[in-house]
Amino acid sequence: MAALALLGVAAALGPGLAAPRYRPDWASLDARPLPAWYDRAKVGVFVHWGVFSVPAWGSEWFWWHWQGQHDAAYESFVRRRFPPGTTYAEFAPHFTAYDFQPRQWAQLFQRAGARYVVLTTKHHEGFTNWGSPVSWNWNSVDTGPHRDLVGELGEALRESNLRYGLYHSLMEWFNPLYLADKQNDFKTQSFVLKKTMPELYDLVLKYKPDLIWSDGDWEAPDSYWNSTSFLAWLYNDSPVKDTVVVNDRWGRGCSCRHGGFYNCADKFRPGTLPEHKWEMCSSLDSLSWGYRSNMSLPEVMDETSMIEELVQTVSLGGNYLLNVGPTKEGVIVPIFQERLLALGRWLGTNGEAIYESQPWRVQMENTTDTVWRGLCPSPAEVLLSQVHLQRTRGLCHLPALASGQCPAPVLTHCIPRHTGDTAGLCWHSGVAAPARGRDAHNPALHAPISPPSPVWLGGEARGGEVMPVGGSQHLPVPFFLIEAKRNFLFHIEYIIFHLRESLLQSLLHCVTSVLVGTAVISCFHDE
After folding, report:
1. How far is the C-alpha of 57 from the C-alpha of 70, rounded, in Å?
2. Do 386 and 464 fall into the same domain?
């Protein structure tokens, strides 16, 4: 990608080269290289939390649906649940955060495999989760929790070595200053000068975020929001100028065109590899970003869908930002915790195929199965992945392989994935040493030949081979992936093993292929 390439050039030039000054225009701002930490991170957690967590019904757009659109369902809900004449502002004291334990959140997100966390500092309702100096009595310090939620979570996340991102809505649905500017066709900027920009500068100076996730921009052009001026200051003079990352929601028409990484749209899924770094934000609750008390289990993303989204996103060069909505008391409900921990277990096994990986020249196989590919960062290791969405068909059973009935090379080594497993990894290592005078970088295996142990029989095997970069001849090193029969629907794991005494001064890059039913791998010789 162009931004990543620029980053590499800048790094090569060394610290002696003065950092460029960015002008307040998109041509200059868009040329800024994306800080490398973001692309390497790959996985983040999104947290939508605010006064909308009090009614906890419908979605985080509760106020707008109720009093902006006068949606009959929302009006009926308020009549049934609250006294006559209730206003939205009366929900704020009930946003207590009584059970908010920021360190527990940070530990959960860390166990989920997240490398960064993005918190809503202010949604479109205008309530700020810190003591905003320009949001009197409509912030978490003056009312409700009487706590600096942004500051507390940030401190806990950094103790856990997680990057901290701040979501901030540029607009506020019912702010009189914003409505006046809107009435003037955004030719006046009272709201921007007195509310939006003071808050953005305050957030950066006070909390020094690693990421600013802007939103609420779509009604007005970036010239109204003063977006380019703010970003020029952020990149040139702010305390986070060298590390901060931003998204693309800085004014009408900016999405998918300007900014740091691109969101393009909520739950954006490109069909092909984008040229620009991007992020998919998704939510465990399929119908809302904020917590809903009327959420049902079928509306919660299952583990299979969650991991499929992650794999597809990373294969296409994106980051995956998975959202949870805490309750008004600050509890992340058990079903959300369970999903996050499931993601963490998966990443604990497969993380080397996700973190710091890069898109390969082919992202998806043209087969009847679904295969997603990516370039692993780890050299001199072979990573094998398995996706057990269904059992593989038409492959040789291990008993047949062991008895010589299967038309495949002799298996010489087997490794169980876990103690007591009924299947493992087998590969052929009976390859002669390179002939005298051949390329010394051509890897070959020299381990003694031995038959597979019958202890590991009971799975299925699929052949593959190791291939060098650049379309050279295939190296004669076939391997076999053995699939264990499991009792659960979806399981994927990587087996990482070093080819000891087999790599003669060579460096391998591993291309993983995640396949519905099984998985294959191709390793490439780095010339």
Report:
1. 15
2. yes
Instruction: Report CA-CA distances (Å) from 412 to 338, 420, 450, 508.
Output: 40, 20, 5, 22
Residue with tokens 């381990």: 447
pLDDT tier, 270 (very low <50, low <70, confident <90, very high otherwise)? confident
Quick one: tokens of 414?
């087997």
pLDDT at 124 over 60: yes
Q: Can you read off the two tokens belonging to residue 420?
A: 């007591």
Element (H, E) at 371: strand 371-375
Q: Count of domains in the chain?
A: 2
Of the residues 318, 351, 384, the one at which a domain ends:
351
Whether 204 and 266 share a structural domain: yes
CB neighbour list of residue 2: distance below 8 Å, 6 or more residues apart: 275, 276
In 58-113, where does DSSP find H-type helix?
Answer: 62-63, 72-81, 102-111
Distance from C-alpha of 373 to C-alpha of 1, rounded to nearest angstrom: 17
Residues 135 and 464: their CA atoms lie apart, in Å, by: 62
Q: Is 181 helix (H, G, I), strand (E, B) or coil?
A: helix
Taking the C-alpha atoms of residue 136 and residue 335, their distance in angstroms, rounded to an integer, is: 36
pLDDT > 60? residue 509: no
Considering the domain architecture, whether residues 302 and 184 belong to the same structural domain is answered as yes
Q: What is the pLDDT of residues 145-187, one digit of tens each?
A: 999 999 999 999 999 999 999 999 999 999 999 999 999 999 9
What global pTM score does this model have? 0.71
User: Is 362 part of a structural domain of the chain?
Assistant: no
Same domain, 157 and 249: yes
Task: Determine whether 518 is exposed, middle or buried from the number of CB atoms within 10 Å of its CB (0-12, 13-18, 19+).
Answer: buried
Q: Which of 319, 351, 383 is the last residue of a domain?
A: 351
- Listed residue (200, 148, 145) closest to 171, CA to CA: 200
Are residues 432 and 324 part of one domain?
no
pLDDT score of 364? 54
Residues 6+ apart with CB under 8 A from 348: 113
Residue 368 pLDDT more than 50?
A: no
| Measured distance CA(241)–CA(35) in Å, rounded | 10
Helix or strand run (H / E) with residue 426: strand 424-427
Class of residue 83 by CB neighbours under 10 A (exposed 0-12, middle 13-18, buried 19+): exposed
Domain of 376, in residue numbers: 371-525
The DSSP line for 237-288 is TSTTTTT-EE-S-SSTTTTTTSSSSB--STT---SS--SS-EEEEEESBTT-
Provide the β-strand partners of residue 380.
Answer: none
Structure-block tokens of residue 59: 């979605």
Q: Are strands 245-246 and 211-215 parallel, antiparallel or unpaired?
A: parallel
